[in-house]
Amino acid sequence: MRIHTRALCALFVLALAFVTGPTALASDLPLLQDGGGAAVEEAETDEAGGFDVDAMFGKVNATMVRVIFFDISFGTLQEAKMEDGVAVLDAAGAPVMEGPTLPIAVVILVLGAIFFTIRMGLPQLRSFGHAIDVVRGKYDDPDAKGEVTSFQALTAALSATVGLGNIGGVAIAVGTGGPGATFWMILAGFLGMASKFTECTLGQMYRETRPDGRIMGGAMYYLSRGLGEIGLGGLGKILAALFAVICIGASFGGGNTFQVSQSVGAVSHVIPWFAEHPMVYGLLMAVAVGIVTLGGIRRIAATAEKIVPFMCGIYVLACIAILLMNLGAVPAAVGTIVKGAFAPDAMFGGFLGVLILGFKRAAFSNEAGIGSAAIAHSAARVPHPSREGIVALLEPFVDTIVVCTMTALVIVITGAYAPTTEVFGEQAGAMAGYIKGDNGAALTSAAMGHVLPFMPYVLAVAVVLFAYSTMISWSYYGERCWAYLFGDNSSIVYRLLFVVFVVFGSVATAKNILNFGDLLIFGMVLPNIVGVVLLSGKVKAKYDDYCRRLAAGEYTTFK
Questions:
Q1: Alpha-carbon dihedral of residues 355, 357, 358, 361, nearest 10 degrees?
Q2: Which residues share a beta bridge with 148?
Q3: What are the angstrom distances between the C-alpha of 117 and each of 75, 357, 492, 522?
Q4: Looking at 85-164, which runs of residues are DSSP E strands?
Q5: Which of 145, 292, 412, 547 has the highest CB neighbour count under 10 A?
Q6: Torsion angle of the four alpha carbons 2, 289, 252, 162, in this order, in degrees rounded to the nearest 10
Q7: Percent helix, strand, coil in the chain (nearest 5)?
Q8: Cβ contact 240:222 at 8 Å
Q9: 68, 246 contact by CB (below 8 A)
Q10: Alpha carbons 316 and 263: distance in angstroms, whole number
Q11: So what's the pLDDT on residue 190?
């Protein structure tokens, strides 16, 4: 099924927004608070009258807010933004409001995760041990159909989720909302394990095998084909097209430019030369990304299975070293996190604001319910769809419950979320600027460097690997969606555009990129969750069948 005309029209509108961005929308739209405190600022033209990449992203954000995204505002918790005692006004003369807002996408994600947890019978607990066995290769069947092993599919998907959101996004969340945001991130990660299980099982159920052996799968296929099986073919085609278009945009934003922007900030912390020449960093990353992405899922998976364990190991060991050096402070930090999660006067709008912030950052980090990971897991060699869903539920555990928690503990124990001159000296001012400017990777780097001077260098390596691995996997996600809409022969066009956006990310500001990534990644939620909920009965039947077969000893162990 190809829907070229509809897809071309949708992409033309998005491309037009990138190039021009309706000034009226950008000027009269109240600032969008992103849960991390970042705002989509009114786009301004370059003083020299030239092409301003940052202004372009600001205009795109304003457009996308009106098209696919809106927040539920809590009026009683909103306050006017003040500067020098005077309320800040937007272009229409209305006061700019600050305080917690609840993105409707987060509501859908949380309710969906709770539904899948109950509907599937707590798969994150029932099948956690079996997932470990599968990933270890205990059940690898060389005769099963697919392009990659379950471990390769897991690392490819993890390389997309374990990225700068784990370092930068978490630091932003804790710095803005306080330690309590960590508690809600962990809870969101646990619930998200059920969402990942459900959507990745569907990715296997409705994948297609091409004559040359390549596997095509993901939300586009289970939305169009799966909903067609239950008499909702028209709705399925619309949702599949919508998902594909938004996923392409998300791959350029949260899966590309956000990663470059945050990583260049962390690298510049130890190599100041890049702060003055960010485009050079962008060009180097663009070349490195292009080399791997041209090889498709097999080369991406082969690269990811080497990079992901290494980069996670480096980062987690660095965090553990800092925690061991401050072992006596760990219990107090945990207590601070729990207390802050329910504090009525928490830093970001009290209890409700911190809950929203934690769930939003977790969703951006682990992408459970987004539908992206199903694209990678659909290519795995498994004898039963549910087995790959069980493997996929490990992603939010590793991404959010392990890696994000490590970052949060380091930020809390070092006090970097509220830097003072008594603790950090002259660096405190710069760290406060990192929080205000949403440069979370640089904040984490500074916090680690305060404990061990060489840690920023270690983190710089980890950050580059995190960003790089995320970009190569998201390039595959976007390319598969592009091929779904326009055919395989057009993939080279997407790959070239993706490489160009790597360079864009090195010169655009963190605030606009963070919001752009949030908008588009969360925009994938609606078409995906609607379809997955409608198809959840089929997933439940498959899961019950798999558990029965496993208990009966039908699956041979090979190791």
A1: 160
A2: 380
A3: 32, 22, 39, 20
A4: 86-87, 97-98, 101-103
A5: 412
A6: 110
A7: 70, 5, 25
A8: no
A9: yes
A10: 18
A11: 92
Task: Give the pLDDT score at 411.
Answer: 92
Mean pLDDT value of segment 91-114? 71
Please tell me the least confidently modeled range out of 221-225, 249-253, 401-405, 510-514.
Answer: 510-514
The residue with tokens 């003055």 is 276
Residues whose CB is less than 8 angstroms from the CB of residue 543 and which lie 6 or more positions away in sequence, other chains included: 120, 123, 201, 386, 389
> Interhelix angle for 536-551 vs 525-534, to 10°?
60
Sequence-ordered list of residues with C-beta below 8 angstroms from that of 220, at least 6 positions apart, any chain = 240, 243, 244, 480, 481, 484
Q: How far apart are CA 237 and CA 90, in angstroms?
A: 40
φ, ψ for residue 363, nearest 5 deg = -65, -40
Rounded to whole angstroms, how far apart are CA atoms 525 and 553? 37
Q: What pLDDT digit, counting tens, does each position of 459-470 carry? A: 788 778 878 888
pLDDT digits (tens, 9 = 90+) for 104-149: 777 788 889 999 999 999 999 999 999 998 888 777 766 666 666 7
- Phi, psi of 306, rounded to the nearest 5 degrees: -95, -40
What are residue 87's DSSP bridge partners?
82
Q: Residue 73 is inside which H or E element, if any?
A: strand 71-73
E-strand stretches of 122-280 = 208-209, 215-216
Backbone torsion region of residue 233, taken as left when φ is above 0, otherwise alpha when ψ lies between -120 and 50, otherwise beta: alpha
Write down all domains in the chain, each with its CATH number in brackets: 104-136+149-551 (1.20.1740)
**Distance separating alpha carbons of residues 491 and 243, to the nearest angstrom:** 17
How many residues would you count in the chain? 559
First vs last C-alpha separation in the chain:
41
The token duo for 455 is 């840690």
**Contact of 114 with 193, CB cutoff 8 Å:** no
Rounded to whole angstroms, the Cα distance separating 419 from 440 reads: 13
DSSP label at residue 402:
I
Contacts (Cβ under 8 Å, ≥6 apart) of 422: none
In the block, residue with structure tokens 């080369």: 299
Between helix 536-551 and helix 385-392 the angle, nearest 10°, is 100
Q: How far from 368 is each of 4, 13, 363, 499, CA to CA, in Å? A: 29, 28, 6, 26
> In this structure, what token pair is assigned to residue 435?
């929080």
DSSP state of 97: E
Alpha helices in 278-382 (DSSP H): 278-293, 296-325, 330-342, 350-366, 373-377
Contacts (Cβ under 8 Å, ≥6 apart) of 213 = 147
Token reading at 182:
């960590």
Least confident of 114-128, 223-237, 299-313, 422-436: 299-313
Is 186:173 a contact under the CB 8 Å cutoff? no
